[in-house]
Amino acid sequence: MPRPMRCRRVCSEPVYNCFVPKGDFCGERVILSIDEYEIIRLIDLMGLTHEQCAARMDISRTTATEVYENARRKLADCLVNGKELHIGGGCYKLCDGSAVCFCGMCKKFLKKTLSKNIKKKGENEMRIAVTYDNGEIFQHFGHTEEFKIFDVEKGEIVNSRVISADGFGHGALADFLKGLETEILICGGIGGGAISALSSVGIKVCGGVSGSADEAVEKLLSDSLSYSGEANCSHHHNHSCGDHGCHGKGGGCHE
């Protein structure tokens, strides 16, 4: 008797569950399961490796690769053959904080982070995060060990504190910041994958900034901060990122 399928852990169900091609419709539809949707989100959007994705979904790396390849074939079938894409079903369980999770969205994370390190953002407040190292803007987003969080109300900083990234890898930092209710990130070097992941959770990126973290926030609030919303760093080691060299914690500059 075959072993029953192990449910895959997902952070949340999709907001959009149907996509219809414009133009001549072939009349066929493809069903992408929730777990297949999640693995596409984690690997193609968040930039996680297959191994990291497997750990997040509580499955083996081999299973993660099989699910990913099947999901990609379904997406290709829709794009090439003009089929409707419907997302739903599958063998999955929603993340509820019962296991070690670094998604930044589960109840366990929110309870730990928002109660211990940072209070819930006020209704009229804006929250800014800055990659941080000893008063300065840390230049490699993916290797950030600390963030300085600023709460702003009516154009004035009302509170700030430094928090640890708590061992989150670069693939989970977007969700980590989302869990902190961050709206704007100020950083130095950052790659395209990280910008896409941050944008997907509604965080504006101000990249290519150096110097004092506090002064950068003040300049942002006075509309005098010079920054870029484009990627200024790649995965390669032998390059420079914007106006700074890729040296520091963790060696090369990664997303």
Tags for this model:
255 residues; alpha/beta; 6-stranded mixed β-sheet; 3-stranded mixed β-sheet; 7 helices; 21% strand
Q: What is the percent of helical residues?
A: 25-40%
- The proportion of residues in beta strands is 15-25%
What is the overall shape? elongated
User: Distance between termini?
Assistant: 45 Å
Instruction: Note the total helix count.
Output: 7
Question: What's the number of extended β-strand segments?
Answer: 13
Structural class by secondary-structure content: alpha/beta
Overall pLDDT confidence: 80
C-alpha-based Rg, rounded: 20 Å
Oligomer: single chain
Give an account of the 3D structure:
The model is unreliable at 235-255 (pLDDT under 50). This protein has 255 residues and is of the alpha/beta class. It contains seven helices and 13 strands. The strands form four sheets. Strands 6, 7, 8, 9, 10 and 11 form a six-stranded mixed sheet that branches. Strands 2-4-3 form a three-stranded mixed sheet. It has a two-stranded parallel sheet with strand order 1-5.
Chart the SSEs and their pairings.
Elements (H helix, E strand, L loop, with lengths): L7 E3 L7 E2 L9 E4 L1 H12 L4 H8 L3 H21 L2 E4 L4 E3 L12 H10 L9 E8 L2 E2 L8 E8 L2 E9 L8 H7 L4 E3 L5 H9 L3 E3 L6 H9 L18 E2 L2 E2 L10
Helix pairs in contact: 1-3, 2-3
